[in-house]
Amino acid sequence: MSNILVLLETRDGSLRPASLEALGAARKTVDELGGGTVTALSYEAFDADAALLGAAGADNVLIAGAAQHSAEGAAATCTRVAKELGSVAVLLAASVRGKDLTARIAAGLETGCVPDCTAITVADGRMVFTRPIYAGKGMLNARVSGAVAVASLRGNFFAAASRDAAAEIGETSAEASKSVVREVAAKSGGRPDVAEANIVVAGGRGMGDADNWAMLEAIADQLPGAAIGASRAVVDSGIRSHSEQVGQTGKTVAPELYIAAGISGAIQHLAGMNNSKCIVAINKDADAPIFTAATYGIVGDINEVLPVLAEELSKLQN
Amino acid sequence: MKIITCVKRVPATTTRVVIDASTKSLDPTGVEFLLNPYDEFAVEQALQVAAAHEGSTVTAISLGNAAAQKELRTVLAMGADDAVLLTNDLALDADVTTTARILAEAIRGREFDLLFFGKQAVDNDAHGVGPAVATMLGVPCLTEVVKFELDGDKVICEREVEGGREILESPLPCAITCQKGLNEPRYANLKGIMKAKKKPLEITEVDLGAPALEVIDLLPPADRPAGRIIGEGAAAVAELVDALRNEAKVL
Ligand SMILES: Cc1cc2nc3c(=O)[nH]c(=O)nc-3n(C[C@H](O)[C@H](O)[C@H](O)COP(=O)(O)OP(=O)(O)OC[C@H]3O[C@@H](n4cnc5c(N)ncnc54)[C@H](O)[C@@H]3O)c2cc1C
Ligand SMILES: Nc1ncnc2c1ncn2[C@@H]1O[C@H](COP(=O)(O)O)[C@@H](O)[C@H]1O
Predict the structure, then answer these.
(1) Cβ pair B122:A182 closer than 8 A
(2) Distance CA B62, CA B85 (A)
């Protein structure tokens, strides 16, 4: 009987959606290892929904009840609980906080970690983790040498389970931390974060002036749940915020639909989005590399194409 | 202040990746290597803190192959006081936990107030070595920092997370991993390059020990199914929307 521990991520008392994907991955892996339990752990206090967490894959939930997030505290708590349970794996979302925690937990457990994993398989009773390296130009398959593996999971690569089971909710203690989060300022604006959205409408240098971005906003307005993304060229020029940067050194996204307008498709940009299910490229240069990654392409000027696209989409909404 | 900054030699991100099946790694033939871009922010921050506190020292440490002396000379030319190369032929492929263990062992014997890292090394994008070293040394670590302020014996930093911004505070000593936007890294000028030649660069052979990860293979990514160009200009939009709805079924 194996145990897999999933460290949940919450913000303002609500669960981040990527945590449910991690629970699904844990459930599937435990089942493939021959059965066992999935334990969800929350470092921060939150009002856990037993039905939601159970359905996603958790058998039980431990809440450490800390008043605030702390990477140090969360990692130390997770390390202790993984030891107590004798877990064979610790899984968590590869968010900014998750990436921060992964290597700490592995260090605490004196074992290896696989950050930003895109697949977990079981072969000969052992877990094999897949992750992209070299800007997505290589896929590494690896096993962890220690008795427990730690992996963070890239968003949209794993699915929550859909079980008819409620998780049992319990408590554990929270480890202390020397560093603290003094303040969390929520981003203004109603759109979801680019890393968590199902639809991303992204622009590059070819969008031209900041004013032109109203055309992309208009398209996002027609697509419920859409987020705005940007290439690094645009972020570097100060037109869009860093939080919107997609790519190897920005956010990695894999939405259902990714629209790339005026983006050339540099390898570092592709590394962040080429696992999107459907990619639409709009670029005036028919030879732009983005077209090699695109599912559908339109060769044309954004000033001409985007307003018409917004209009066609609005027809669909009505 | 005693400041240590950890830097890595990495292949340029534009490298055409040829996989060497025997080493299960990148074939380095003809590949351009450079200082990890995020480590430039780390070095710059270290130098700025040192400049503001008289009597400070900045030491650069790297785990790398013998060729990584080049990147350490760059850091010395930027202004670091001395450098340490922990060397092993296979060092650049070491996993996060192993890399962190060796760096932590090297740092443990030294006095330090601040440790600076890049937020990620652009070869394996792990975002992990900084937080792992800090955990092993028992000091706090603030990651992906875009603003850094030293207020007496505490550090106040800012970072962006999904959907928001966090303000983090830590006592010294602590570790910081640096994100783009933190500062504008300086270039090594000719004077710096000349001075760097005379600065101490200590080279120590290290044993990597047992790896924490066992690499099974490294494969090229699966090709994306070929897409199609729908057409040109605004006239193609109606057909695009139809394809998104009825073919890809994403609307
Ligand atoms: C270490 C490193 C990390 C990096 N990380 C990232 C990253 O995370 N994310 C990222 O995006 N980049 C990253 N980059 C930068 C990357 O190499 C490219 O420079 C960048 O992606 C280019 O952005 P772009 O496509 O918007 O601009 P450009 O390459 O300038 O392309 C603009 C495109 O717009 C088209 N265009 C122009 N006008 C119009 C018009 N009116 N209508 C339609 N099309 C038009 C042009 O044909 C062109 O294809 C990184 C680089 C390095 C070295
Ligand atoms: N071999 C190494 N030697 C020195 N520092 C390293 C090494 N590998 C990683 N680092 C540091 O850790 C940071 C994050 O690397 P990574 O966790 O591999 O993404 C880098 O920006 C460096 O500051």
Answers:
(1) no
(2) 5
pLDDT band at residue A188 using 50, 70 and 90 as cut-offs: low
Residues of chain A in contact with residue B14, where contact means CB-CB under 8 angstroms, are 267
Q: How far is CA A184 from CA A17, A99, A181, B161, in A?
A: 19, 18, 7, 9
d(CA A41, CA A39) in angstroms, rounded, equals 6
Structure tokens given for A71: 């990477």
Residues of chain B with pLDDT under 70: none
Pocket test for ligand 2, best of B58, B129, B204 (most atoms within 8 A of CB): B129
pLDDT tens for A168-187 read 999 999 999 999 998 888 77
Most B CBs within 10 A among A129, A234, A298, hence the mutation to make, goes to A298
Helix (H) or strand (E) holding B121: none
> Residue B224: what pLDDT?
86
Q: Which CATH class is domain B2-205?
A: alpha beta
Averaged pLDDT for residues A4-21: 94
Q: How far is B144 from chain A (nearest CA, A)?
A: 8
* Range in A33-37, A222-226, B161-165, B221-225 the model is least confident about: B161-165
B128 with A113: Cβ contact below 8 A = yes
Q: Angle of helix A96-108 relative to helix B129-137, nearest 10 degrees?
A: 40
Q: Which residues are within 8 A (CB) of A184 and not within 5 positions of it... i.e. 6 or more apart?
A: A11, A12, A69, B161, B164, B165, B166, B167
User: Predicted ipTM?
Assistant: 0.94
Is A309 in Cβ contact with B168 (below 8 Å)? no
Burial grade of B226 (CB within 10 A; 0-12, 13-18, 19 or more): exposed
Q: What is the per-residue pLDDT across A233-259, written as a single tens digit (0 to 9) for each? A: 999 999 999 889 999 999 999 999 999
Token code pair at residue A74: 């969360």
**Cβ atoms of residues A191 and A240 within 8 Å:** no
Structural domain boundaries of chain B? Answer: 2-205
* pLDDT on residue A182: 87
DSSP B222-251: PPPPP-EEEEESGGGHHHHHHHHHHTS---
Yes or no: say if B122 and A248 are a contact pair by the CB < 8 Å rule: yes
Whether residue B50 contacts residue A169, with contact meaning beta carbons closer than 8 Å, is answered with: no
Q: What would the mean pLDDT of A70-78 be, rounded to a whole number?
A: 97
Per-residue confidence (pLDDT) for residue B163, from 0 to 100: 77
Contact A53, A23 (CB under 8 A): yes
pTM: 0.95
Q: Which residues in chain A touch residue B100, judged by CB atoms under 8 angstroms apart? A: 103, 107
Closest-approaching ligand to the CA atom of B37? 1
